[in-house]
Amino acid sequence: MQCPKCEYVAEPGEAKVEGQCPNCEVFYHKVRRPAGEQVATDVRTARYGTKRNLAFALIAVLLFSGAFFYGFKQYAYYQLVKNVEAVVRNTNGQLAELLDKRAGRTNADFLRIYQGRLDELDRLVAQALAIDDSTNPGVSTAAADYVRASQEFIRIFSDELQGRLLLSGEQASFQIASKFLDTEEGERFAALSDAEVSALYSGNLEQISAANGFDERLAQLKRGSELEALGKKRIAYLQAKNSLERAKARHEEAILALGKAGESIGRAGGKLEARIGRKLPIQAWSLNP
């Protein structure tokens, strides 16, 4: 009902005393209204209450919709993080089984299961790309890049290992060939150029042709055999030396490439964390994990 004095519209049950305005506290029957003016009816009050209820209902719907959307988004993000962490942990596990010394793998074990691990990492790349990253676009690609970087590290580690094994073999071969230098003549012969060695062969042939008598000829033939043996040892020594130098260069290149590959894993992991907005169990490997 509307107060005839302050025109306040009271809601049903709001007045503490029947017939008293809850706003100005006057009694309705004590206030005279100008002729022709009517007091608001209960219909007007009901309409006001209906509009207010509709407004409250609309606000409630909006709040519920917002809460539902926020909850759905949080759940989708939780699933995204869960799927990405699974890919990262599986990738780390594949590398750890091959590279971690605590796994007790020998070089032969590594080479035996190496290709199988590459195939498994290919599967993890596909798994990463299949992740639904609609809430954080680019996360699935970043996760796949992390797996690819880890895969490349294994490839280069394999190159380094094979280079290391080759270097070990070449060092053994060179050590055997270097015995040629144990004698003074061998050391002197190894220092000769190809032209100088060829000149020694030619001179020996001339001496054989110019030899007088059987003994002198036999002596020159013996000397020719010695020169030939020295020449073969010299060639074997030089070949072993060149092979060792090539093996060292190859191994050094593999070590440098391996260091860069380890850095690539760290960069890929950093980009993935930046995309997803949280820390992940990124594993940056090195030559001696």
pLDDT averaged residue by residue: 83
CATH class of the domain at 81-276: Mainly Alpha
Q: Give the topology string: H per helix, E per strand.
A: HHHHHH
Number of helical elements: 6
Q: Architecture of the domain at 81-276, CATH level 2?
A: Orthogonal Bundle
Residue share in helix: over 70%
CATH H-tier superfamily of the domain at 81-276: Helix Hairpins
Largest sheet report: none
Give the CA-CA distance, first to last residue: 84 Å
CATH topology of the domain at 81-276: Helix Hairpins
- General shape: rod-shaped
Approximate strand percentage: under 5%
Q: How many beta-strand runs?
A: 0
Helix- and strand-based class?
mainly alpha
If you had to describe this structure to a student in words, what would you say it looks like?
This protein is mainly alpha-helical and 289 residues long. It has a domain at 81-276: Orthogonal Bundle (Helix Hairpins), CATH 1.10.287.620. The protein is built from six helices and no strands. Helix 1 runs antiparallel to helix 2, helix 1 (42-99) runs parallel beside helix 3 (139-177) and helix 5 packs antiparallel against helix 6 (214-276). The longest helix has 63 residues, at 214-276. Keywords: Membrane, Transmembrane, Transmembrane helix. The chain crosses the membrane at residues 54-72.
Kindly summarize this structure in a few lines.
The protein is built from 6 helices and no strands. With 289 residues, the protein is an all-alpha fold.
Descriptive terms for the model:
single chain, 289 residues, mainly alpha, Helix Hairpins, transmembrane helix, membrane, transmembrane
